[in-house]
Amino acid sequence: MLTLTATPAAPTTAARHIDILQGTSEASWQGCQRLHALPELELGQLVPPRSRAVILAPHPDDETLGCGGLIAQLANLMREIAVVAVSDGEHSHPESSPLAARLPLLRPAESIAALHCLGAGQAQILRTRIPDGRIGQHRLELKAWLIAQLRHTDIVFAPWRMDGHPDHETVGEVAAELEQELGCKLVEVPIWGWHRTQPLGGDFPWVRAHKLNLDAETSLKKRRALRCYHSQISRDGQRDPVLPAGVLAHFVRPYEVFFL
């Protein structure tokens, strides 16, 4: 993911920053009855037979955070899966970090390892090579690239358009445009939205939210896959992890949430 900041900005600005130090806890979400009462989805409803699941990941790890359980379930049925790595996540750490020079290769390798943990080693991985943190500046390039790759029968999973991260929101907005232009169905996925929004804050789209339940085996696969992202979940010298435990807690639930 993009390097984050501890300085919060107004949530209505186009280029919001995420305050990694102060976010909504998983305990707050678990205390929300509306989350527990979300309508349930069957896998076949979400990704019908003969449709390809295309997961748009602004950065390596987004595909597992938001859709790891879904990917594992689809892989178990030998369904067609494509993961679009929009960037290689090369700017998740500052240049002063010992990891900085290795990130362009390290982060994609972590993503591949995670897909194998999910049982999805056969998934197609497509890379756009758009720079991390600058997806908005390459919006037209991304759109043209996706037009050449997507089918009208695809089910496209993209970050929520109000996710709070500029790269995420750009990818979600482009996917929404392509839903209208190509006919592929868009499913939005909250990722940083869990950290940024409040359960009763008013901007969480409850009427569109549904959950896909994960059995114990699938949940275990996802937890193992999340551990593959060593660069993101481990301390970097004196720096806290990019994905601290409080953020990861949102993604180890026995279900995943999608906006339809």
Descriptive notes:
With 260 residues, the protein is an alpha/beta fold. The protein has eleven helices and eight strands. It has helices at residues 26-30, 33-36, 43-46, 62-76, 103-117, 139-149, 166-182, 193-196, 216-226, 230-233, 245-248, and strands at residues 40-41, 53-57, 81-85, 124-127, 155-159, 185-189, 209-213, 255-259. A five-stranded parallel beta sheet has the order 4-3-2-5-6, sandwiched between helices. Strands 1-7-8 form a three-stranded mixed beta sheet. It starts with 25 loop residues before the first helix and ends with a strand.
Sequence-ordered SSE layout with sheet pairings:
Elements: H1 26-30, H2 33-36, E1 40-41, H3 43-46, E2 53-57, H4 62-76, E3 81-85, H5 103-117, E4 124-127, H6 139-149, E5 155-159, H7 166-182, E6 185-189, H8 193-196, E7 209-213, H9 216-226, H10 230-233, H11 245-248, E8 255-259
Parallel strand pairs: 1-7, 2-3, 2-5, 3-4, 5-6
Antiparallel strand pairs: 7-8
Largest sheet, in brief, is: 5 strands, parallel
Mean of pLDDT: 92
Order of helices and strands: HHEHEHEHEHEHEHEHHHE
**Total number of helical segments?**
11
Give the structural class: alpha/beta
Q: In angstroms, what separates the terminal alpha carbons?
A: 24 Å
The poorly predicted ranges are 1-16
Strand content: 5-15%
User: What fraction, in percent, of the residue positions are helical?
Assistant: 25-40%
Strand order of the largest sheet: 4-3-2-5-6
- Give me the Rg, rounded: 17 Å
Overall morphology: globular
Kindly state the number of beta strands.
Answer: 8
Quaternary structure state of the chains depicted? single chain
